[in-house]
Design a protein that fits this description.
binds nicotinamide-adenine-dinucleotide, 8-stranded mixed beta sheet, 15 helices, 434 residues
Length: 434
């Protein structure tokens, strides 16, 4: 007997949000057709392959994907029309890349046009992407209405910006409160009903698309600014010879203080981009932003500060030096190296003439300087710099570095405060003490 599904959903965009979101819906009893323009990605996913570092109750996403494919509850396609013909619920997770400081809505617009071409009366379109304020009303709605159908009359239109952190997607789809908005009350109710299929957390209604759009941006920007405050402080703590991680830990014992952790910069798709999404709305309103761009500058300057520290520690001229870079992901325990500060550190080191060998077991190999083992990166290097933590990367034990690094003045620049529990190790630990 054919399996009965709770709902039939098309998820547009099968990236860091779309793939785990699709599988979260299938785990809740829905059938999902994932749609992506990247034919290679679709083919890989349909073979059960993904590089994402997600787990649901300890089960790796790869196992979940293969099981749901085998069960027939999930499939991926490049054909939006075919998918749209089979579903009533459409979820959009296609985002806006930032190019030279400007958000580019081209991918999202193309996605919406492909949906408009197959939209049916009674469908729900739920957008989960992070947007420039005003886009739901001025871009999403008119593009979908090219279908000839009217939002709020012929189809439901909702916006619920996604809040998950990569690496915790399955857990946070269920436990993270969601801000929900709609073109009208019915759309908001339909959106909430779809989200309730997967979430047990509070659904927080917003009075407008715009309120939800701006709330999402300030969530990300506030974290960017918070990290910038701590990153800026690292220059002072370094000069004072104290450890910034200890300072943050001490300060956070105050009940109303919540400092985030410092690091080699702020990367990925979400945090750095949010400011550039807000900027057009601020410009249009004639508002000069001061604090937020300053925070961006502080965080953008971190990779150079890290690279300069490495260069100062080299026992030989940069052109004769080799440095091991450990961790290329934009944050700990992630496979995402988009806009990663680690890649910028590598760029600065290479520009100075240093030979770099980098290891990150989670980030798929895409750069000539990547090697496939920790040992290949560190063996004989003059020093190492730790930029992101990963499972299977033994950066905690200073003795490991001592064994592999060139014995003449070896050093470890540890931006994560993970190596260096052993003060007597013959390597310089936490020299950046970020
Ligand atoms: N990554 C996160 O942790 C996270 C968290 C919260 C919110 N967000 C937001 O969610 C959105 C998606 O982020 P992501 O990290 O999953 O991005 P992603 O780049 O990993 O995935 C987007 C996918 O959309 C596909 N795509 C592009 N054009 C398409 C089209 N016309 N039709 C179908 N698919 C198309 C791309 O090929 C890609 O696979 C963004 O707005 C982002 O800001 C991301």
């Amino acid at each position: 007997m054919a399996e009965r599904y709770f709902r039939e959903i098309a998820v547009f965009g099968l990236g860091f949000v779309g793939l785990p979101l699709s599988l979260c819906f299938t785990l809740a009893g829905c059938r999902v057709i994932g749609v992506d323009v990247d034919a290679g990605l679709v083919e890989e996913i349909n073979r059960g392959i993904t590089h994402h570092q997600e787990r649901y109750r300890g089960i790796p996403i790869q196992d979940i994907l293969r099981r749901e494919l085998a069960r027939g509850s999930f499939t991926a396609t490049t054909d939006p029309r075919k998918a749209l013909a089979e579903v009533q619920d459409i979820v959009v997770t296609v985002g806006l890349p930032v190019v030279n400081g400007e958000p580019d809505a081209g991918l999202l617009a193309a996605c919406l046009k492909s949906i408009a071409a197959g939209l049916k009366r009674g469908d729900l379109v739920l957008v989960r992407s992070t947007l420039v304020p005003g886009m739901m009303r001025r871009l999403v709605k008119p593009l979908l209405e090219e279908s000839g159908l009217r939002a709020g009359e012929d189809f439901y239109l909702g916006y619920a910006p996604e809040r998950i952190a990569e690496g915790r997607a399955f857990e946070e789809f269920v436990t993270m409160p969601v801000v929900v908005s709609g073109i009208d009350e019915e759309s908001l109710a339909e959106t909430a009903a779809l989200l309730k299929v997967i979430t047990r957390a509070e659904l927080v209604p917003a009075s407008s698309f715009e309120a939800a759009e701006v709330a999402k941006l300030i969530e990300n920007i506030s974290r960017d600014v918070n990290i910038a405050v701590v990153n800026e402080l690292t220059a002072v703590t370094q000069a004072l010879g104290i450890n910034i991680f200890e300072v943050v830990r001490l300060a956070n014992t105050h009940k109303r203080v919540k400092l985030l952790q410092p690091g080699p910069g702020v990367g990925g798709y979400c945090l750095p981009n949010a400011f550039y999404y807000l900027l057009p709305a601020a410009r249009a309103a004639g508002v000069d932003l001061e604090l937020m761009p300053a925070a961006r500058r502080v965080n953008d300057a971190m990779p150079r500060r890290v690279a300069d520290t490495v260069l100062r520690l080299l026992p030989v001229p940069p052109a004769q030096a080799r440095v091991a870079v450990l961790g290329l992901a934009m944050k700990d325990f992630s496979s995402d190296s988009r806009q990663s500060p680690a890649l910028k550190v590598v760029e600065h080191l290479q520009a100075a003439g240093v030979t770099v060998l980098a290891f990150d077991p989670a980030v798929p190999k895409q750069h000539p300087f990547q090697v496939d083992t920790f040992e290949k990166a560190v063996d004989g290097a003059h020093g190492a710099v730790i930029l992101a933590r990963q499972e299977g990367m033994p950066v905690e034990d200073p003795a490991v570095f001592a064994r592999f690094l060139d014995p003449a003045n070896p050093f470890v620049v540890d931006t994560k405060n993970v190596c260096g529990k052993c003060a007597s190790a013959p390597v310089l630990i936490n020299v950046v003490s970020l």
